[in-house]
Amino acid sequence: MVPILAISSWEFSGLIKIKHWATKALYVSALMTAAYFLNQTPFLLIPLLVITLLWWIINSYWIISFPRHTRFWNSYTATRLVNGFFFFVPLVVALSALHQIDSSLVLLLLALIWSADSGAYFVGRAIGKNKLL
Questions:
Q1: What does the pLDDT look like over 28-47, one tens digit per residue?
Q2: Average pLDDT over the chain, rounded to an integer
Q3: Which of 94, 111, 102 is nearest to 48 (CA)?
Q4: Cα 128 to Cα 94: distance, rounded to the nearest angstrom
Q5: Which label site among 12, 26, 58, 112 has the fewest CB atoms less than 10 Å from its CB?
Q6: How many DSSP H helices and E strands does the chain contain?
Q7: What 3-state class would DSSP assign to 41?
């Protein structure tokens, strides 16, 4: 799980326009430290997921009202950093918790995601307004 978190958060740091490699390394280290700490304290899983849910409700509002609230995404680096935190850390902690219950559940979850993604691609390609290549 650690290499996946490190690689994906490094790539995400480039996506949110962190340019200097030391700043990227600090961000990746902070995410990995937070994920490790929260993974070692299972009683914080539910509060973490509740806070994450609230954060993504706010993000959903920003997406629905897209043209008006782009300044939150574009202007504030802190917003992008927090988005990364509330994406990667709960993901790793939840996958670790799922793996502790039964490792086959992680594979089942991944198969479900892959199926939904592939199905959406083919449906979008067949009946979508904008044809994909």
A1: 999 999 888 888 887 888 88
A2: 87
A3: 94
A4: 33
A5: 112
A6: 6, 0
A7: coil
Which two structure tokens, joined as six digits, stand for 51? 């806070």
Distance CA 80, CA 101 (A): 32
Model confidence at 132, pLDDT cuts 50, 70, 90, reads low
DSSP conformational letter for 129: S
DSSP assignment string, 88-123:
HHHHHHHHHHHHHH-HHHHHHHHHHHHHHHHHHHHH
* Spans of all domains in the chain: 2-101, 103-133
Residue written as tokens 């993604």? 117
DSSP 24-40: HHHHHHHHHHHHHHHHH
Contacts of 16 (CB under 8 A, 6+ apart): 77, 80, 81, 83, 84
The tokens for 57 are 């409700």
Q: What pLDDT is recorded for position 108?
A: 96
For the record, the structure tokens of 30 come out as 């902070």
- Burial group, residue 114, by CB count within 10 angstroms (0-12, 13-18, 19+): exposed
